[in-house]
Amino acid sequence: MIVALPAASQVELRFSPTDQHIEVGEIGSLSIILDDTLEVRTIEMWVSYDVTMVTSQGGQPGQLFDDSGCSLFPFFDEKVPGAWYGGSVTMGADCFTTGPGELFRWDFEGLANGICHVQVDSVVLYDPVADVIEGVSLSGTTILVGIVSSVDTPSAQHLSLALAPNPFNPRTTISFGGRPDESVTVE
């Protein structure tokens, strides 16, 4: 029996932990999590990140694939600095895994203090007969490295900044860094 979502449904994968905090020199990992009950034969994804903030330590199949009882074909390629392509395929005619759970895991090391934005360029899931599962998405996340890890995780919800004029120094420079899909209002 194949468990599939209706064509109009969206499959939203997520990173766990979200906005992870690590120290410089510390090894961290991000898991790609499927929260839906869905049969998956293959996951493949293209991810980019800031190589000045973290260095990749590799990737491997998640617990769902490890526990599938099937032979696996894992792959991880990072020939281009700051980007990697990875995933896993179950091998065999009747082999697949069923969510919810961890599909893939990426390990990295903190290099410098700051915020590393992790951008998902593409993610594809395939069903047990190797057809693409439509409507799959995975939003990016951040890795907070070093001294910034001791502060609360920044939130994009209702994010704004208001400053009163400074009569002693009317020239002020404001800089803000965020994900490309976030917006900021400065009043």
Strand residues, percent: over 45%
CATH class (first level) name: Mainly Beta
Output the number of helix runs.
1
Q: Tally of extended strands?
A: 15
- Shape by Cα distribution: elongated
**Mean pLDDT over the residues:** 82
Set out the fold topology.
Blueprint: E1 11-16, E2 20-22, E3 27-34, E4 39-40, E5 42-48, E6 54-61, H1 63-66, E7 71-77, E8 83-91, E9 97-98, E10 101-110, E11 114-126, E12 136-138, E13 141-145, E14 160-161, E15 185-186
Parallel strand pairs: 1-12, 2-13, 14-15
Antiparallel strand pairs: 1-3, 3-10, 4-9, 5-8, 5-11, 6-10, 7-8, 11-13
What does this structure look like?
The protein is elongated and about 50 Å long. 2% of the residues lie in helices and 47% in strands. The protein has 187 residues and is mostly beta strands. It has one domain (11-151): Immunoglobulin-like (Sandwich), CATH 2.60.40.680. The strands form four sheets. It has a six-stranded mixed beta sheet with strand order 2-13-11-5-8-7, with no helix packed on it. It has a five-stranded mixed beta sheet with strand order 6-10-3-1-12. A two-stranded antiparallel sheet has the order 4-9.
Structural key phrases:
187 residues, mainly beta, Immunoglobulin-like, 47% strand
